[in-house]
Amino acid sequence: MCGSVNDLARATLSRRGLLAGAGTAAVGASLSGAAGPAGAAPATAPRTARGHRTQLVLLGTSGGPAYWPGSTRAGIASAVVVGDRFYLVDCGSGVVRQARSAGLGNASHDTDGPLDALRGVFLTHLHSDHVVDLNNVLTEGLFNGLHLVDRQVPIWGPGNRGGLPPLFGPPPAPPVVAPDSPTPGTREMVDLMVRTFATDYNDRALDNRKPVPSQLFAGHDVPIPAHLLADPNGTPCPRMSPVTFFEDDLVRVSATLVQHAPVFPALAFRFETEDGSIVFSGDTGPTENLVELARDADVLVHEVIDREWVEMLLPEPRTPAQEGLVNHLLHAHTEVTDVGAIAEAAGARTLVLSHLVPGSWPEHKWRRAHTGYSGELVVGRDLDRIGVGRRTRRRR
Ligand SMILES: [Zn+2]
Predict the structure, then answer these.
(1) Domain Metallo-beta-lactamase: where (predicted)?
(2) Which residues pair with 118 in a beta bridge?
(3) Structural domain tally of the chain?
(4) pLDDT of 228-252, one tens digit each?
(5) Cα of 95 from ligand 1 centre, angstroms
(6) Ligand 1 center–CA 190 separation, angstroms
């Protein structure tokens, strides 16, 4: 409906106007093909997956901070739903609210859901847009069902980088943040979050008789073989085959390293259930590791970036520093024109685009991902559900 309006708006507005200044919000609103202006209802209702026991639920589909002008996409987060339980993959801005909006867990009670049904949290890497609301899950969770979980919720993610990334551009180097531990991994990060909010946790435990964190959750570093982690600055990331690191009665989860330098380690995950498989690319440039992890997957959820936006953000002529930034953006992410070939090489049956950069681009631009791909393409929108395997029973 609004495609021609979007095109006209893009054609008639200057590059400068797109990036800064008073016109930004209006431009962003007109660019947002999937979501419409902030606060407005989405143009199309979310996809449903009635009858599927295993479902992918897209809780947030924004790449980068979820504040693209005019877009209502929430921060990057997904849920793997198996029956009446679910697992979170990344915890971008708004994850608890979106889990509530998706009807996960106890959806009808003011304080007993949605996190009563949470079985695990899986973080692909520790960039803030992927983890910023983990603390929300862990603290506000006490009043959104987390206090009712029937077992300790594991929080899995990459371990300590082991050293600072190289200085980008000429010296001098900036001062190091938290020099005693400048690159904490997932286990340490969760411990630090608990320490940061100790006043709250202790108050809730003593006054409201809520469980203490150690009764509810624990952080864990995904056990990638040590020899693969020896050089955190190595690029491309080391070639490896997936390692299985988590299994319960509903899912088996494996991981591989992906190409998101200078962030390291950065992970992709594969979930296997009785019904089929869902793979999450995390943030990555093209890598054989992901193709192997996603081999014959039912669903591949893949990040994507549009070079057109990068070139608009950093137009030529560029300084050396700007040229470096363009390279970073394009090598640490996967271009929309490349992702189809990756899904095809893996033999993935459905390709779902999420973590869209920019989050305000109209849907037709992402449809270029079909190039070189013969399967089903889904341009993800918040609260979309994608069923895996055969329908087993009626369910929302
Ligand atoms: Zn990232």
Answers:
(1) 77-177, 247-355
(2) 86
(3) 1
(4) 999 999 788 999 999 999 999 999 9
(5) 17
(6) 19
